[in-house]
Amino acid sequence: MSVEVDTGRLKSEADEPGWEVDPDDEWGVAVIATVGRQLKLRREAVGMRAADFAKAVGYGEDLVYKVEGGKRIPREEYLDRADEVLGAGGLVSATWEDVKRVRYPKKVRALGEMEASAVEIGVYECNSVHGLLQTPEHAHALFEAAQPPYSPDDVERMVAARLARQSVFERDPAPSLHFVQEEAPLRRRVGGTMVWRQQLERLLEVGRLRNVTLQVMPTNTDAHPGLDGKIELLKFPDGAAVGRSDGAFNGRPTSEPKQLRILELRYGTIRAQALPPRESLAFIEQLLGET
């Protein structure tokens, strides 16, 4: 994003380039505090007041204080603009390499790191479209529906974090990805008809990837081991694995071999009971044709 100094336009609160820092994320707090101090020291070194700097970068003075005080996570475009205004020769822009590692909530980062290193991911999802499969608009609508409601800033941050996890589809070598989706969430028109159609089209696109298997569990079927909730299984290059199920082991992640075998048995039964991949894609195409 390019912001001209002479426009005199300040961004609104909703346009602020960053997110609130999670106080429980010690590493994230330390990184953002360090970046903020560097920005403040560089601004003072060139003799700029906060108000002048704010006008130059095109954002409010209050935001400048939040970033410099380590209270707000700056986005890449903010750092690039600050680098230009302060004449830092790329040193401020370079801090993005540290910032981007802590820009999302701690729990989401941990999940993303596991998904990014897994060679095989298996998921059964019963209540919604799985996060790795969601379009930005679908994810936004889901977060906006939460009660108590999230702030617009939190919604934006969580959507961005969810989309960042989808880089798993761009990995080389590609991991093996298996998804089983219940029929009911596929029929729910989250975000309206247009968003719903885009989501179904995204499922078809992903389901046709050579390393992805996408199956639909029809509602009109017998009971199966996933009725207690979501199941997730991740396997890693060294042979290690981790799994989690809403209906087992108090919902906590487990790497204990006996418990993993139980989850694998349940997931295997679910996959065997769901529609085969080709029939599943045809089913989604049929849903699209119903509008």
Tell me what the structure shows.
By secondary structure, this protein is of the alpha/beta class. It contains twelve helices and seven strands. The chain has a five-stranded mixed sheet, with helices on both faces. It has a two-stranded antiparallel sheet with strand order 1-2. Helix 2 packs across helix 3, helix 6 (106-117) runs parallel beside helix 8 and helix 10 (193-207) packs antiparallel against helix 12. The longest helix is centred in the first third of the chain and has 20 residues, at 26-45. The radius of gyration is 23 Å and the shape is elongated. The two termini are 38 Å apart.
The largest sheet is: 5 strands, mixed
Give the helices and strands as they follow along the chain: EHHHEHHHEHHEHHEEEHH
Q: Regions with pLDDT < 50 over 5+ consecutive residues?
A: 1-17
| Rg from Cα | 23 Å
Number of helices: 12
Average per-residue pLDDT, rounded, comes to 87
Question: What helical percentage do the residues reach?
Answer: 40-55%
The number of distinct β-strands equals 7
Alpha-beta classification? alpha/beta
* Distance between the first and last residues' Cα: 38 Å
- Kindly estimate the percentage of residues that lie in beta strands according to DSSP: 5-15%
Biggest sheet, spatial arrangement of strands? 5-4-3-6-7
Q: Overall 3D geometry?
A: elongated
Condensed summary:
The protein has 291 residues and is α/β, with parallel strands linked by helices. The protein is built from 12 helices and 7 strands. It has helices spanning 26-45, 50-57, 61-68, 76-86, 96-99, 106-117, 136-144, 152-165, 183-187, 193-207, 257-273, 277-288; strands at 18-20, 72-74, 120-125, 176-182, 212-217, 231-235, 241-245.
